[in-house]
Amino acid sequence: MTTLFAVYVLIWPALTLGVLVLICRAVWRDRREARRQRRSLV
Prior knowledge:
The model has no long low-confidence stretch (mean pLDDT 95). The protein has 1 helix and no strands. Helices cover 83% and strands 0% of the residues. The longest helix has 35 residues, at 2-36. The chain has one helix spanning 2-36. It is mainly α.
């Protein structure tokens, strides 16, 4: 039971990191596309 609880607690930082990486990649891709088209990102 302790191992299960430890895995449950430790999975949240991994999921959060995955979502953060996904968001950063999307922003980076949008930024490159905006530069390519010479327009503002916002």
